[in-house]
């Protein structure tokens, strides 16, 4: 009988050691799994935040180039001919290379701006809507001078003709007024 208690005494330390090893292994695996999950979630969140930036980078969004023109003084179409406007126009252009293309046509563009402005009255030009219409007309006509079709011209013929060769879009993106005085 003395053999039985001695065997139990030896088995208890081994089972305690084995239990401690199993618990330690479970804790390490659980902690490792939780750490992996946390890191993967953090990386997924960071990648999710970077995706919109990457897609905008893929679109190659480049800062526009601005091309200011010299101020122009124009007689307006008011009766009596004593009203005039002094305007400063700045073009917003896609890139610097396109700005060089626009510079080559500046004499024609300035002439067109003077003609378009001189057809308007002081009442038209004093309203925000009148200035917006003038800016749109300058943008459309300037694009035409550069050899590009305006969007308005594209829409009407497309309804009639389905097989139309589309020319590239104009590098001019906006017309900004840097100076606008009506007297």
Characterization of this structure:
- There is one protein chain.
- The protein is an alpha+beta fold.
- It folds into 2 domains: 1-61; 65-182, Tetrahydropterin Synthase, Chain A, CATH 3.30.479.
- The chain has 6 helices and 4 strands, in the order H-E-E-E-H-H-H-H-H-E.
- It has helices spanning 3-58, 96-104, 106-118, 122-125, 128-145, 151-160; strands spanning 65-68, 72-75, 84-93, 172-182.
- Strands 1, 2, 3 and 4 form a 4-stranded antiparallel sheet that branches.
- Helix 3 packs antiparallel against helix 5.
- The longest helix has 56 residues, at 3-58.
- The chain is rod-shaped.
Topology of this structure?
Elements: H1 3-58, E1 65-68, E2 72-75, E3 84-93, H2 96-104, H3 106-118, H4 122-125, H5 128-145, H6 151-160, E4 172-182
Antiparallel strand pairs: 1-3, 2-3, 3-4
How would you describe the oligomerization state of the chains in this entry? Answer: single chain
Mean pLDDT: 80
User: What are the segments in which pLDDT stays under 50 over at least 5 consecutive residues?
Assistant: 51-58, 153-162
Count the domains.
Answer: 2
Question: Kindly, what is the distance between the CA atoms of the first and last residues, rounded to a whole number of angstroms?
Answer: 123 Å
Structural class, please? alpha+beta
Overall geometry comes to: rod-shaped
- CATH class category label of the largest domain: Alpha Beta
Largest sheet geometry: 4 strands, antiparallel
The CATH architecture of the largest domain comes to: 2-Layer Sandwich
Q: How many beta-strand runs?
A: 4
Residues in helices, as a percent range: 55-70%
Number of helices: 6
Q: Please write the string of helix (H) and strand (E) elements.
A: HEEEHHHHHE
Question: What fold name stands as the CATH topology of the largest domain?
Answer: Tetrahydropterin Synthase, Chain A
